[in-house]
Amino acid sequence: MPWADFYGQETVKKTLQQGLRSGTLPNSLLFVGPDEIGMEKMARLLAQALNCLGSSDDPCGRCSPCQALAKGNFPDVLEIGLDKEAGKKSAGIDEIREIRELALLRPMTGRHRVFIIENAERISLEAANALLKILEEPPAHAYFILITKNPELLPATIQSRCRLISFKPLNPEEIERALLSSGMPAERARLAAILAEGSLDRALSLDWEQVMAERQLAWHYFSQLVTAAEASGFFKILSSSRQEIIRRDLASLFRFFLTFWRDLLLLQEKGDEDRLLNPDLKEDLKKLSVELTSEACLQGIALAEEVLSGLERNLNPKLLTAYFYAQVRRKENG
Hints:
The protein has helices spanning 10-22, 39-51, 64-71, 93-104, 125-136, 156-160, 172-181, 186-195, 200-204, 208-227, 232-235, 243-268, 282-289, 294-312, 317-333, and strands spanning 28-32, 77-81, 113-118, 142-148, 163-166. With 334 residues, the protein is α/β, with parallel strands linked by helices. Helix 5 (125-136) links the parallel strand 3 (113-118) and strand 4 (142-148). The protein starts with 9 loop residues before the first helix and ends with a helix. The model is unreliable at 85-89 (pLDDT under 50).
């Protein structure tokens, strides 16, 4: 896979390519960024570049290491996927000791050994201390790529031995351009770019039947919330005892709220209606827009973004929702 085929993250690509060209790429890297942003894919691309037999830093895709890596069966690249769904630290001391032993051995068929550790924050403290020993003095032929969205949970000693590589969410305009290039219809691409949370992979894998069902429910709650004091339906989502379900459903709800407010603002300011994120709701949006001001729409956008940010930071979803509702009511009555 050539570097150019990886969409976005230009700063990251430039940093890694410069390190490869100059021979100054650190042996220990810490990839930090949100979920589904492409960190695992970038780690595999870097592993391919480190082992490609071609003459440039761009993987040729034709040599035996490139082809083996594309099939996922190259012996000198080891991926360790820690089970984030199980909610446990699944990399123990024995596994890390095995990595240390392998790292000291010369590559079997490639130029370098590469160890990719996903969800690195889930490594146990004992295992992290064992890993530190090899990170402090890594063999020249061995590279370690640690991947995490929570670097603060990693021991400071591990962080200090790695070069930090930060991945940023793509902006909606970048995602929309990529989706249009892939052949996605313009109306769908605009909405997907907003719902994707900065991830092109997420945008491409959206289940549109589910998206439309969730949007219909979100519109029902939104129109109730904005036009009337009745909000019992809005709070039904909080009835689950499982915080992860509440958080997931609320995030989906507020992402749709964000699209509704942006559409209302566009209509308020007589913008290009072809840019509506929900064009099939245009008539309903127009009816609602006469009851709101541009300022109210801007405040709604800011509130939705504030709640989404709070959910991302793992703040209490019930408190966030109560705060949101109180702010909406205060602005409507004030």
